[in-house]
Amino acid sequence: MIVRELQVADALACDAVLASLPDFFGLQSGIDACAAAVRGEPGYVADVDGEIIGFLTVERPFPDCAEISWMAVQRERRAGGIGTALIEKLVDDERRAGTRLLLVMTSGDSDEYVPTRAFYRARGFLPAKTFPGWWESDLPLLLVRPL
């Protein structure tokens, strides 16, 4: 597996990864926002022999800060180190660029997202704040990781 920069040509493959996760990306508004992100934001893909099996996209809300806007790994490939490899590549590149803080927003109260929250916590992210009422059907949780 290689982790490389996301390219516009990867967009359809990223859409397919997202489609493999209907339990996590079931709202059309989220699917549309993710599709726009993989077509317009920087990011990384996990590539195995030319097949995209995972991706993440990155926003930079402030000069010293990067935010993982979207991240997904094919359902059948989860828990195989792909998400960790994507985050490690991002962390390495952001440290070299002088970024000081990495953010990610996820579900803060959904039982389905217990493994997601545990995944980020195990990679050095700490809960920072919840935003009641910000999402229509869930409690957003901001996690931060100092770099």
Q: What can be said about this structure in brief?
A:
Helices cover 32% and strands 34% of the residues. With 147 residues, the protein is of the alpha+beta class.
**What's the domain count?**
1
Shape: globular
- Main sheet record: 7 strands, mixed
DSSP helix fraction: 25-40%
CATH A-level architecture: 3-Layer(aba) Sandwich
User: How far from one another are the termini?
Assistant: 25 Å
Average predicted local confidence, pLDDT: 90
How much is the radius of gyration in Å? 14 Å
Total DSSP helices: 4
Structural class determined from secondary elements:
alpha+beta
Strand portion: 25-35%
Poorly predicted runs are none
| CATH topology term | Aminopeptidase
The CATH class: Alpha Beta
Strand order of the largest sheet: 1-2-3-4-5-7-6
CATH homology-level superfamily: Gcn5-related N-acetyltransferase (GNAT)
One letter per element, helices H and strands E, the order comes to EHHEEEHEHEE
Query: How many strands in all?
Result: 7
